[in-house]
Structure formats: C-alpha cells, structure tokens
Amino acid sequence: MIIIHVVGARPNFVKIASIIHACRQMPALQSVLVHTGQHYSHQLSDSFFKELDIPEPDINLEVGSGSHAWQTAQIMMRFEPVLLEKKPDAILLVGDVNSTVACALVAAKLRIRVIHVEAGLRSFDRSMPEEINRVLTDAISDLLFVTEPSGMENLRREGVDGQKVHFVGNVMIDTLERHRQKAAQSNVLTRLGLSPRTFAVVTLHRPSNVDDPVTFESILAALELIQRDLTVVFPIHPRTQTQSQVCGFWDRIKALENLLTIEPLGYLDFLKLMSEARVVVTDSGGIQEETTILGVPCLTVRENTERPVTLTEGTNQLVGTSTEGIIAGYRRAMEKETLPRRPALWDGKAAIRVVHILLNHW
Ligand code: UD1
C-alpha cells in the first residue's frame, strides 16, 4: 500500500513525525513524503525535520508564501502531477493548514482516498482560515482520525458516516512523549538566562490577533503588565514580526525591559521552554494541548477554541483578547499550582492506532 503523506507548515511536521515513525514499523506500508513548501525557512521547517527525525521529503513543491487563494491554487496545481505519477492508494493529511485542504481537494477529485488525522475539531468561527480548511477537508475525507470527544460529536452532527471515523488520540502528544527526555537536556534556559517557573512564554500568530491593530494593542497592553511581574519570553513568528512593524508596535515591544523577543525556536528548545514556564500565553492550537500534558497553565488569547477538551480536562483557559480578560486569567493561573492532565487516549500511542486501522481497513 502506497501512502503519500503531505506536510506544509510547522504544526504539520510535529504531527507527521509520529505517523512516519509508526509506518516505519509496518513494511506493508510504503510512505512517500511530500512537502508543499508552505513553510520554507530553516526555523519553521528544516530544523523540525532534523530534530524530529523526519526523512527528507521525497518531493518538495516549493510553493512558498502568498495570499490564501494563490497559495492554495499553487499547491493544487503542483500536487496533481505528483498524484498522477505516483498513483498512491491514499494520501494522509494532518491538521488544518492551507496545504491540508489543497491536497485533499486534488486527491478527492482524482478518486484517491483521503485520510485526515486530527479530524472533527471545530471552533465554529468561519473568520478563521483554519476552520474553513477543517470543514472542507473532513467533508471529502474517506477515513477520519479524531483526537477528542468533541470531534466525534461534530462529525456525527455533520452527517459523516460513523464507519469512517475513529477516535485514536493525539499524534502531537505522541511526538511530545517521544522527545521529552531529549528536550529536558536542552540548554535554552541557560542561553536565555532564565530559571524554571519564573517566566512566561508568549506565542502569537493568528491573523485575527496580529493583523488587527486594535486587538494586537490590547494583547500587548496585557503583556506589558505581565512583564512587570514575570520575565516574558516571546519567540516571534515572522507574521507577527512583520505586523508589529506595520502597526508601529515594534519599538514599544523592544522597549519593554522584562520582555525578551527571540527568533522562533526549534522543537526541542521550545518544548523545554514551555515545560519550565510558569504560564504560557498563546493563540496556537497545538500549544493548548501540549501545556495540558506538561501541567503548565495556558491562557488562550482567543474567543473560541476547537480543542474544548483542553478546557474541561486540561490546563487551558480561554481568556479572549481584552487586556482585562487576559490579566484576570493570568491572576487565576498564578493563584494555584497546576498539575499535568491527560485526556483520554493522549497516551503516546495514537499513531500506532492510526497505522493498525489503516492496515486492517484497506
Ligand atoms: C500557517 C497556518 C496556521 C499555522 C501556522 C503555524 C494556514 C492558513 N495557516 O500560518 O494554521 O498555525 O502556519 O506557523 O495554513 N513566512 C516565513 N517563513 C516561512 C513561511 C512563512 O517567514 O517559512 C512568513 C511569510 O512572510 C508569510 C507569513 O510568514 O507570508 C505567513 O505564513 P503562512 O504560511 O501564510 O501562514 P502562517 O501565519 O505561518
């Protein structure tokens, strides 16, 4: 059985690492890895391949950055000849980025089976590009692997045939568990002059937060207050860096004495940084899940989350984007100790379940 695995952007690499690792143990599965090139810089792409032991992609579509329509269309045009030449039995997609939906569309129209890992998550917010990618990808997938109960319920409500859907757990947590020991040896705290539990980590990159100057300013005002209390480490995503310059916030950020802006980190350094943080402030999807397992309080600066299990059975709080909301969440997080939590099937074995189902199904 030939499966084409597709990756494009940073969170995809973390998820595919576990699946490729599990596939290596099953000789009946032949894997071809396609990188769309949506993320291409060393920090957002190559370093993840090296640290997570992902093989060099067999094919790189080298699409690069552009508007959503341009990027999606370019991926589709470049991916179609790959499918025509390789004639795989299926393609396997992870997550919700533009590369995911683009490749799903191409395969579905060529009647090649589509497998979606991390299916069923819904923020119910169509202003979020990822939500459109999720809904469309799931609608044309033949086999859907789900991380949390809400995903099962969402797919049932959307009328997806239950036989196609499997609750397997979280492949991103598989990768975390497999690299935890190695990450513990990272010297990132020494490099940054930090002691455990005395700092906050911030990541921001959602267009709804950083492309809108009013929202960005409101989050920034909260960070200004937090850095009076705790050192704030802010690895800056390229989109956020550009937008902070466009919005005129860059000098203000750089002037904050106790806020440290750094380049995006590799996987192992970031895992170490997160695990030793007192609190994490983020708009990322995956970080809500990782902090739950690590037992670090997470303040999600969004109005909704497609990962509600991290609220009900994790360490996550949805604090919105107002300065007051973020600060109130911060105070709650500082009041008590937070323990690691483990939602059902987030046990490091999700990818093995995926692979067993693939072998038994087809
Ligand atoms: C994408 C995903 C998002 C994911 C995020 C993780 C979509 C719609 N969004 O958002 O779901 O959470 O990746 O980072 O697919 N750039 C670089 N180097 C790169 C790639 C991009 O500097 O390797 C810069 C470019 O200026 C680009 C900008 O970052 O325009 C945004 O990149 P893009 O892939 O469009 O979206 P992300 O914001 O990274």
Protein described:
With 362 residues, this protein is of the alpha/beta class. It folds into two domains: 2-169 and 346-361, 3-Layer(aba) Sandwich (Rossmann fold), CATH 3.40.50.2000; 180-335, Glycogen Phosphorylase B (Rossmann fold, 3-Layer(aba) Sandwich). The chain is 48% helix and 16% strand. The protein has helices at residues 10-24, 42-51, 68-86, 98-109, 129-139, 149-157, 171-184, 188-192, 207-210, 213-226, 238-246, 250-255, 267-275, 286-294, 309-312, 323-335, 350-361; strands at 2-7, 30-35, 59-60, 90-94, 113-119, 143-146, 165-167, 199-203, 231-235, 259-262, 279-282, 298-300, 316-318. The strands form two sheets. Strands 3-2-1-4-5-6-7 form a seven-stranded parallel β-sheet, sandwiched between helices. A six-stranded parallel β-sheet has the order 10-9-8-11-12-13, sandwiched between helices. Helix 5 links the parallel strand 5 and strand 6. Helix 4 runs parallel beside helix 5. The relative contact order is 0.13. The model has no long low-confidence stretch (mean pLDDT 97). The structure holds uridine-diphosphate-N-acetylglucosamine.
Set down the secondary structure blueprint.
Blueprint: E1 2-7, H1 10-24, E2 30-35, H2 42-51, E3 59-60, H3 68-86, E4 90-94, H4 98-109, E5 113-119, H5 129-139, E6 143-146, H6 149-157, E7 165-167, H7 171-184, H8 188-192, E8 199-203, H9 207-210, H10 213-226, E9 231-235, H11 238-246, H12 250-255, E10 259-262, H13 267-275, E11 279-282, H14 286-294, E12 298-300, H15 309-312, E13 316-318, H16 323-335, H17 350-361
Parallel strand pairs: 1-2, 1-4, 2-3, 4-5, 5-6, 6-7, 8-9, 8-11, 9-10, 11-12, 12-13
Helix pairs in contact: 1-2, 1-7, 1-17, 3-4, 4-5, 7-13, 10-16
Bound molecules: uridine-diphosphate-N-acetylglucosamine.
Residues 9-11, 38-41, 44-45, 65, 97-98, 129-130, 205, 237-239 line the site of uridine-diphosphate-N-acetylglucosamine (UD1).
